[in-house]
UniProtKB/TrEMBL annotation:
Residues 320-459 form the Jacalin-type lectin domain. GO terms for molecular function: phosphatase activity; sphingomyelin phosphodiesterase activity. GO terms for biological process: phosphatidylinositol dephosphorylation. It comes from Exophiala bonariae. SMART domains: Jacalin (SM00915). This is Jacalin-type lectin domain-containing protein. GO terms for cellular component: cytoplasm. Pfam families: Exo_endo_phos2 (PF22669), Jacalin (PF01419). Keywords: Signal. CDD domains: Jacalin_EEP. Coiled coil: none annotated. Gene3D superfamilies: Endonuclease/exonuclease/phosphatase (3.60.10.10), Jacalin-like lectin domain (2.100.10.30).
Length: 460
């Protein structure tokens, strides 16, 4: 299979996909690739790390997992050979050797080697519209945890038209001393706070190296299930929904794992959203697929794959997004009344704008108002009739201070009336609610203006 391989593509415009499906599937892989420099960790893996990294990359290409999260992809000062991928960064590392033999179309650029890089990267068959690296606020100087900026990454990937899933990749503090447990707990709290602020209303999959097991005396990772309602795919599909008891005897895994029943620190957790249902249907340790030619392991971790299915809601849906990856995330999805209540219909549309689009606002018949953006520009408003619905929109983009923003909006109602604000450009996208549906809310990113904007649809 031959593909072009650009590194880090962030979508800055809304591009309608050729085929929008109501259901679909994808698979994920999480793999700690044992890529710390040999002087810090030999990992008890036979062979040299350059060759093993190339072997891992070739397996990624062969099995073509849709979203791959890797941990411990760091620089080795002895790894001074250039990658064949001319888009790689100029530091030469195990990251480059993996990418040399992989062919996924979308891959993140390394954040650097020890002590600068987190060792977290993603290879994907899906493009993404935003990507952020976040360092843990706390670490404990044990097992080399403070030698690299461990943390997590946050990526919003587009699976289909109007179907976005937030993928988080993490590498938690290692070790079993009390300081390790406290640092690991602080990291999970930091991750939870970030998800609550940035993934509101979104489907989410969290996977990576948690350095935690449910049988541990302290189990910080369990807060993802108890506080955010995430499902652990191993517990759900392999353990029949029964979480191992904290403090119970552990069932250690070998490498390769003898069966899926034993527990490791690498985990995959998820939740759906009001607009997108997610379900996990397959789970497996894949170490037998990631072996050296002589049968030895390529890493000291067992890689995990999980198969997911998704489907759109019949009562509320999302549009594509238009703009750039800046500003603060917002999403009205969780607070919009259900269609059956009859209170989700907008009664008034309000925009503010001048040279650019400053803000958008909707007032529902329930009296609830959603407003996003700043306070600049001039205000324009349109009051809707009882049988009139907002059904179409047009957004135009432009650049300000090297950031892509929305410069213009045009709203069209079911009666053919219009409301516009801002300044039109030559880079525009059109949006239309499905037949019999209406626009009832917003999603995107904002600051003083509208950096990224999309719409929420519901039946009339």
């Amino acid at each position: 299979m031959t593909r072009t391989t650009p590194v880090v593509l962030l979508a800055s415009v809304a591009l309608p996909l050729a085929f929008a499906a109501n259901t679909g599937s994808f698979d994920v892989l999480t793999f700690n690739v044992a890529g710390l420099p040999s002087i810090l960790s030999g990992n008890d893996v036979p062979g040299d790390k350059e060759t093993n990294s190339r072997g891992i990359g070739s397996k990624f290409a062969e099995y073509d997992y849709d979203v791959i999260h890797v941990q411990e992809v760091c620089t080795d000062k002895t790894a001074a050979r250039a990658s064949t991928n001319t888009n790689s960064l100029k530091d030469f590392n195990y990251h480059a050797y993996i990418y040399e033999t992989d062919d996924h179309p979308y891959r993140t650029a390394t954040s650097g080697g020890v002590p600068f890089g987190s060792g977290l990267n993603t290879l994907s068959n899906f493009n993404w519209i935003s990507y952020d690296r976040i360092k843990w606020d706390s670490c404990y100087l044990n097992d080399g945890d403070c030698l690299t900026p461990k943390g997590f990454t946050a990526m919003r990937a587009q699976i289909d038209e109007g179907v976005y899933i937030d993928f988080y990749n993490l590498h938690a503090d290692a070790g079993s001393e009390s300081g390790d447990v406290l640092a690991r707990q602080a990291g999970i709290v930091q991750l939870i706070n970030y998800i609550e602020a940035n993934s509101i209303g979104n489907a989410v999959v969290v996977f990576g190296d948690t350095n935690d097991r449910y049988t541990n005396a302290e189990v910080p990772v369990s807060m993802l299930t108890t506080q955010l309602g995430f499902k652990d795919t191993w517990v759900e599909l392999i353990k029949g929904g029964v979480t191992p008891i904290s403090g119970a005897p552990a069932d250690p895994c070998g490498k390769p794992a003898a069966s899926n029943q034993c527990e490791i620190v690498d985990k995959v957790l998820y939740r759906g959203s009001r607009a997108i249902s997610l379900s996990a249907s397959g789970w497996n340790y894949e170490t037998s697929k990631f072996l050296q030619p002589d049968g030895n392991i390529l890493s000291d971790h067992n890689p995990i794959t999980v198969d997911f299915s998704w489907s759109r809601s019949n009562t509320i849906r999302l549009s594509d997004l238009s703009g750039g990856p800046h500003g603060n995330w917002f999403n009205d999805l969780d607070s919009i009344p259900s269609s059956s209540s009859g209170t989700n219909k907008p009664s008034k549309i309000s925009f503010r704008g001048a040279n650019r689009l400053d803000s958008v606002s909707l007032t529902l018949t329930s009296g609830t108002t959603y407003t996003h953006g700043g306070t600049g520009g001039s205000l324009v408003e349109l009051t809707l009739e009882a049988s009139e619905y907002w059904t179409q929109a047009k957004l135009c983009r432009g650049q300000k201070n090297d950031h892509t923003r929305n410069f213009y909006i045009l709203a069209t109602t079911s009666s053919g009336r219009t409301l516009s604000s801002g300044t039109s450009t030559g880079d525009c996208s059109s949006f239309a609610a499905p037949d019999g549906w209406q626009i009832v809310g917003f999603q995107g990113r904002d600051g003083d203006e509208l950096d990224l904007l999309g719409f929420i649809y519901a039946p009339q």
